[in-house]
Amino acid sequence: MSATIENSASPAGVTSGRRQYSRWTSLAVLCAGTLMTVLDGNIVTVAMPAVQSDLGFTGPGLAWVVNAYLIAFGGLLLLAGRLGDLVGRKRMFTAGLAVFTLASVLCGTATGQGMLIAARAVQGAGGAMASAVVLGMLVALFPEPREQARAIAVFSAVGSAGGALGTFLGGALTDTLGWHWIFLINLPIGVAAWLAAVRVLTPEPGAGLGRGADYPGAGLVTGALMLTVYVIVGAGDRSRAVTLLLAALALALFAAFAVHQTRAARPLLRPRLFRSRLLTGANAVQVLMIATMYGFQFVGALYLQRVLGYGALATGTAFLPAPIAIGVLMLGLSARTVARFGGYRVLLAGLVLITAGMALLGRAPADGSYVTDVLPAMLLLSAGFAAAMPALTGLAMSGARAEDAGLASGLFNTTQVVGGSLGLAVLSTLAASRTEALLADGTAPLPATAEGYRLAFTVATGIAAAALALAALVLRERRA
């Protein structure tokens, strides 16, 4: 009663309360849209055997169900982020949700290989449109540092936990309803998220296409990014000479883009963006950190299935402690620890835990068990990621100007995709090569497989340690 009287006597208090409610409601809408795209990036992996059996994919052909999404998603993030700054971020976000949802229906109703792969590419494009502008919208909604730290913690918890939840939901939906439902489930979620976004999100007028469009630059960088992701995700299926040739072509496109940016009247990627030590350093650290975490998720799932003998649903269930721990720690502690100790210290502490968790996994034996050899490492990795990701996001976005927030958001998401793809390609290739070499020497299949995964975990430990060293050197907060 007293609160009601107080607010009625103070119109400013009512206005402030409404604005606060609107901002946190907007955050919930952004998180819902992000959760849908994040889930889809992981939910497919568990359903791959069912997709292969139903549609008759070959082994190399099946990989394109994942690759088509990754190439479109990773290649278009930077362009989508810049277009969001120009046409308005709300417009780009809602358009992305619509494209993603419609493409999900096409995936779920696909009756042939070509239709599924094409729909996955369109789905990746929609995911890029929606994801690229989210961080820019978030920092605009919450300019005050403490509230921004809380908002980033909530957003990071949803995104990080959603990745692990995708493994569980993929197994559950595939086993109970069939693989089509891993895509069709996006229809009600996508429609609800789109309607909420149209109603709740505040329109942000963009600068206009005529004041910043760089179409030649957009073509060059999008082609370069798509080719880079293509080279990474398909490296194991091609000869070394072809891989090197494609990598050289990607570098040539990046070089042409860099030269064009110095001459363009309205460059797509302003050089001043990379003068920010925090933005550039945070993106570099993120490549290494995400490579480690994606490697854990992929190689860890293979270890559970091929060494410990877990099925799809059991593997998904085994990963559930990760999203639970990440969500609890990010929501309960992350914002407060960042506010108290600073993003730099919290990031370093998180990277120490990630390195320790990967080192523990590097000891996982062929006759290991989930409780003693996987769960403790998973909890360390989850705690480390819960600390590091919000801190790293805050450091990165603090290095961008308001007018470049969409582009900075797209860049940050792009390095996530590149880091994840790089980690999967490198660690899975190392594991497979080590196992094949041991099998050729006469080692039994189970010990050879376990040794391959141990090598991958050991290399991932080195990558995490490199991320820690780079963060310590580059991201130290300067005192006035």
From TrEMBL:
KW Cell membrane (keyword) present: yes
Principal subcellular localisation of the protein: membrane
Transmembrane segments: 27-50, 62-80, 92-111, 117-140, 152-173, 179-201, 213-235, 241-259, 280-304, 310-331, 343-362, 374-398, 410-432, 452-475
Subcellular location: Cell membrane
Membrane topology recorded in Swiss-Prot or TrEMBL: Multi-pass membrane protein
InterPro entries cross-referenced by the UniProt entry: MFS (IPR011701), MFS_dom (IPR020846), MFS_trans_sf (IPR036259)
UniProt domain Major facilitator superfamily (MFS) profile: residue ranges: 26-479
Keywords (A to Z) from UniProt: Antibiotic resistance, Cell membrane, Membrane, Transmembrane, Transmembrane helix, Transport
Classification via PANTHER family: BLR6921 PROTEIN (PTHR42718:SF46), MAJOR FACILITATOR SUPERFAMILY MULTIDRUG TRANSPORTER MFSC (PTHR42718)
Designated name of the protein: Multidrug resistance protein stp
Gene: stp16
